[in-house]
TrEMBL record, chain A:
This protein's UniProt keywords: Cell membrane, Membrane, Transmembrane, Transmembrane helix, Transport
Lipid bilayer topology: Multi-pass membrane protein
GO BP term (any one): transmembrane transport
Keyword Membrane belongs to the record: yes
Compartments it resides in: Cell membrane
UniProt similarity note: Belongs to the binding-protein-dependent transport system permease family.
Regions that span the bilayer: 20-42, 77-99, 111-130, 136-154, 166-186, 198-220, 232-253
Source organism per UniProt: Marimonas arenosa
Gene Ontology CC, one term: plasma membrane
A matching Pfam family: BPD_transp_1
CDD domains (UniProt xref): TM_PBP2
Phylogenetic classification of the source organism: Bacteria, Pseudomonadati, Pseudomonadota, Alphaproteobacteria, Rhodobacterales
Name of the protein this chain belongs to: ABC transporter permease
UniProtKB/TrEMBL annotation, chain B:
SMART domains assigned to the protein according to its UniProt record, in alphabetical order: AAA
Name assigned to this protein: ABC transporter ATP-binding protein
InterPro entries: AAA+_ATPase, ABC_transporter-like_ATP-bd, ABC_transporter-like_CS, ABC_transporter_ATP-bind, P-loop_NTPase
The organism's place on the tree of life at top rank: Bacteria
Keywords of this entry: ATP-binding, Nucleotide-binding, Transport
Matching Gene3D superfamilies: P-loop containing nucleotide triphosphate hydrolases
Residue ranges occupied by any ABC transporter domain in the UniProt entry: 7-239
Pfam families for the chain: ABC_tran
Molecular-function GO terms, alphabetical: ATP binding; ATP hydrolysis activity
Annotated family: Belongs to the ABC transporter superfamily.
Organism the protein comes from: Marimonas arenosa
The keyword Nucleotide-binding is assigned to this record: yes
Amino acid sequence: MATNRFFGLRKPVGRRQRLVSAFGIWAVFFGVWIFASSAGLVNDLLVPAPQKVFATTWDLFWERGFASDVMISISRVVGAFAMACAVAVPLGVLMGAFPAIEAVFAPFVSAWRYLPAPSFIPILLMWFGTGEAPKLALLFIGVIFFLITLIMDHTKNVREELVETALTLGAGRSTVVMKVVFPAVLPNIVTAMRQMLAMAWTYLVIAEIVASTTGIGAMMMRARRFLKTDEILSGIIVIGALGLIFDLLFALLHRWAFPYLRKS
Amino acid sequence: MTGQSTLQIRNVSKRFDLGRGRSVQAVQDISFDVEQNSICVLLGPSGCGKSTVLRMMAGLETPTEGEIVIGGRTVDGPGRDRGMVFQAYTSFDWLSVRKNVEFGMKINGLPASERKDRTAHFIDLVGLTKFADAYPSQLSGGMRQRVAIARTLANGPEVLLMDEPFGALDAETRWLMQELMINVAEQTSTTMVIVTHDLEEAIFLADKIVFLSSHPGRLKEEIVPQFKNGKRIADKEKVVKLDGYSDLEAHLMRLMRQEGRENE
Ligand SMILES: Nc1ncnc2c1ncn2[C@@H]1O[C@H](COP(=O)(O)OP(=O)(O)OP(=O)(O)O)[C@@H](O)[C@H]1O
Ligand SMILES: [Mg+2]
């Protein structure tokens, strides 16, 4: 009976059970970590205790100006991502709406998608030096081609009947694209942006670890030189938290901007 | 029902190219007229090319041979003079019912005050005044189809083309919608072409039934339901009780069965 209730085959679990389960897995994780470090099972230098990591995080923010590094990282992600969207949204929609435009850009875009963005780091450094430009360029290259492809595919999936309805109401090509195709695909565009923003964070960390003196990744590389594992772990936690916050912001944006997707 | 024809279908054939040298003949050498202000029903077994004929009238497909003439001009692409209602739901989900109905008039540049009046009138005509500010996702299937009909009518087309518009509705809603269409035909003097494979619906709505034979679609028979004496009767129950109703139904059943057998 009880197993049926809490362990049903493909039955959704209740909110309470979800929360308890989620809390449980993290409790186990931190439990093992605390136990391992306090019992001396792991080298204190390589794996500091969690309470130490949290204390360090606090200290970094309030005593040592870590916030400015965090702000630099955020502005890099947001800046490069905004530039990528400014190109990818119109281009992706046009490619999805007009096969002639797809025929021109698709062969180009899909080739670039198979080139891992980090392989451009050496050349970007030679072209742009060590300022902000190479980091922004890496994020831009890393995100834009996937974003274009996703948006194009979503645009193609806009139902033909909607387009034909607009045509028989007297709409011309540009009206169909602006007034029907674009609003129809917009929720999916926001979802695609949400997915790609997660990828932008990945490239940010790579850029900052490889070639930067500022930002979260650079702080972690500095900490490595002084064997400060607690600071490295702090950096990881902050990156994770930021990723989560941005994801939540996008989820909120989606809910707020598309109320008509909710039933009742 | 003046004798003048609004739509002329002249020796129309349609062959679909399936690629790799294969093709399918969907419609072969069909000719018939649709009189002004009349309701013409296209009937025939599944796959006989009813939708194809309707889509060619709308300008969404081009005939391979022959031509379709509306008001003296050869159809060349879709236009606001021929509104279309599809079987699948075509509500613009991001717009309220009111904005949906207003859509065609807005893109065609009607002044706002006239738009407002017509929108209210046609929302009322399909009985959705209470839901004018709802989003389509909050409506039932039948209500969404009524939105589509109101949107098309509000745009003031000369010809209303409908492809199995009530196919997905339950019996009761279907019945209401059929009676609604009779009322609309009386009140707006719109010419209608309606595709269906429901015999009852065909007899009830039609001033003329155009029966297509199966694959490739040819004109089998043009039938005027004489028993209605050239009148439209908005009460379905009365029509069913008229002398001659069951004879016509039996005749259509025979045609359907014949075609079905030849198809095997
Ligand atoms: N876009 C298309 N490409 C290729 N073949 C098509 C296309 N549209 C229709 N056909 C073919 O043309 C024939 C007629 O199709 P159509 O949809 O007009 O029939 P229908 O009478 O509307 O059938 P139903 O009652 O099932 O809706 C079918 O054999 C169909 O496979
Ligand atoms: Mg059909």
